[in-house]
């Protein structure tokens, strides 16, 4: 019989080795997967995407900006550009680099996969918003054309990704960029958020943490060089101008109602009270949103809090004659209007 | 040809226009559609449906709901209800179980043996069919049928009445923290009756991720095939630790502790799964609380006996029959001096003992995969066979049980069992692969080889690791 102390020690060693390999994020397997991202094809596709992005937004694109985005040294970025030019994907003009027709269509293919994948994650899975981009960065280099089309068909050929960016069609069409920066709003001006830039990741995470999402109504309160103060769906938010610049907004139509006071979520309804549903937050997406709408939670529906669970969390509401329990985290994203 | 080209161009133009329009409309179109459907439906309903003027101010349903979901009564009431259901099941099943066993095992089995020999069947055929196949089936029926026939109708009555959705409502908070759905509390409780039925019961969970979690973790609910094992082993090894008048209490305490450990593993594994491999699976929560209704007694009895009990029992019998044959064969086919079973037991013994178990237990859990009910009879038979005991049992390959626990204790001690073996058997009985009926059911429900494999292998691995760790720590301390 093996000595129990030795057996335990052996077990500890095996467990440690297994952890070394399989731990998420820091394990060897995870590292190996990340290392594959440095491959040549991946670099080429990322560079094309970056240059396309610059052209789309009408900003100047340099070797340095490519190096910065791709996290590679400048000389390697320069080498990469030469290579792209040799491949006929890029032409160098007087004012920087431009994509050729081939380069443009290649870039759009990659972008199509990226945005479709993000949309898929947002609507069909529970992957948190902060992980969409990183996952799409991997998927865009691995999905084949057939897989991409199957995915697009499965999720109903969507036209926008969850950040509000248009998804290029198979033939490479993409509408021109519309909207302007949040910073361009005057005090007191209303607008709707149409796009939130998902790069760099830390900035996007900060914006998401503030509860900002596409489809929100914003009203500028004041802005100066240090900070931007605005109301998003009636709730006041303060951001540094650098962050606020990552939000794109579009003017509102005349008939849309202006939100002037903070929206009250369903959770503010106490047992026995009733109210009309005003809207479901755009931050609630995919299956959960569809489920709620199927249950009849649409603007105008009368909703009444009936009871809370013995453990305090789900609350049962009567909705169109049925008694339905909703968790607090979801009820917080349904806005109501008490009469 | 020319025509066709023009047509394609036309379609392309239309598609392209559609694309442009969709970009202009934006992403709200689906919401707008649903809203307009509801607006129309509401308008039509308002014109055509008349609603009785006054809703009763004192609604019986709401009154009952307030009580059932109240902070003070909600949980005690739930525990009381479950305790009553379990008590009725255990107490009510004893007598019919004994009756079926005495009929199928004590009366029909010898009679069949006689009949086979009268008809001139060779000894090995009699052994294979009567001692192997028949006995395994008889055991599964006698242990499984009565508790299921009591438990399922009771459970279905509570469900029909509308009480169970309220349990899910009360329990949701706990399961939410584990990344699961409140309704899992129901499939988990159903698992205490039978894991295969528990897996089928997860159909009430309409969110894909949470349903998968409930399916994979259902095996951590001790099913009725395992309760007798737990009780027997606990009474032998834990009941004996304390004075005789406390033995019953110690036994019950040990069994309840194992069941609680099962619930702990259910929640812990649910949490683990929802935060790792199942993190990205689609999920949506809503829980409808139907109005209370007087249960339909006869229909409930019919559906729970036919749909649940009969189907599960039939599957179990189908799987148990070949297992009986295998059990008989491994004990009766000899290579050299020893039977296949003894060869395996001798080879597996060092590994088994390292885990605080033994070769007999490992073999019993492999050949008794079809049904947990036959694990103890198989263990007893194999112990007698491999330890060369005389005077007990009915021979190689013939499963048997003894009427008193002390007789079983004598056999097990003679087979080299210690306190540690008993403890680890109880743990391994909780943490091992689901029975083949459940595995098959999991496959039918998930339609996925991958998740079936996870649900099968994960508990065994956990069982091996837990037994191993317990054995080492026990030996260090002892």
Please give the structural blueprint:
The complex is a heterodimer of chains A (339) and B (478).
Chain A: H1 4-22, H2 28-35, H3 40-57, H4 63-70, H5 74-86, E1 90-93, E2 96-99, H6 101-124, H7 129-142, H8 145-154, E3 180-181, E4 190-196, H9 201-209, E5 217-223, E6 228-232, E7 235-239, H10 241-244, E8 247-250, E9 264-265, E10 274-280, H11 286-294, E11 302-308, E12 315-319, E13 322-326, H12 328-331, E14 334-337
Antiparallel strand pairs in A: 1-2, 3-8, 4-5, 4-8, 5-6, 6-7, 9-14, 10-11, 10-14, 11-12, 12-13
Chain B: H1 2-25, H2 29-48, H3 60-68, H4 74-118, H5 123-161, H6 163-177, H7 184-193, H8 195-201, H9 208-217, H10 227-237, H11 247-275, E1 287-288, H12 297-332, E2 334-335, E3 338-339, H13 340-354, H14 359-367, H15 375-386, H16 405-414, H17 419-430, H18 436-446, H19 449-477
Q: Any overview of this molecule?
A:
The complex is a heterodimer of chains A (339) and B (478). By secondary structure, chain A is of the alpha+beta class. Among the domains of chain A are: 28-99, Orthogonal Bundle (Arc Repressor Mutant, subunit A); 180-259, SH3 type barrels, CATH 2.30.30; 264-338, Ferrous iron transport protein A (FeoA) (SH3 type barrels, Roll). Chain A is 41% helix and 20% strand. Chain A has twelve helices and 14 strands. Chain A has helices spanning 4-22, 28-35, 40-57, 63-70, 74-86, 101-124, 129-142, 145-154, 201-209, 241-244, 286-294, 328-331; strands at 90-93, 96-99, 180-181, 190-196, 217-223, 228-232, 235-239, 247-250, 264-265, 274-280, 302-308, 315-319, 322-326, 334-337. In chain A, strands 3-8-4-5-6-7 form a six-stranded antiparallel beta sheet. A six-stranded antiparallel beta sheet of chain A has the order 9-14-10-11-12-13. In chain A, strands 1-2 form a two-stranded antiparallel sheet. Chain A starts with a helix and ends with a strand. The model of chain A has no long low-confidence stretch (mean pLDDT 84). Chain B is mostly helical and 478 residues long. Chain B has 19 helices and three strands. Chain B has helices at 2-25, 29-48, 60-68, 74-118, 123-161, 163-177, 184-193, 195-201, 208-217, 227-237, 247-275, 297-332, 340-354, 359-367, 375-386, 405-414, 419-430, 436-446, 449-477, and strands at 287-288, 334-335, 338-339. In chain B, strands 2-3 form a two-stranded antiparallel ribbon. Chain B starts with a helix and ends with a helix. The mean pLDDT of chain B is 87. Classes of the chains: A alpha+beta (339), B mainly alpha (478). At the A-B interface, helix 1, helix 11, strand 11 and strand 13 of A face helix 1, helix 2, helix 3, helix 6 and strand 1 of B.
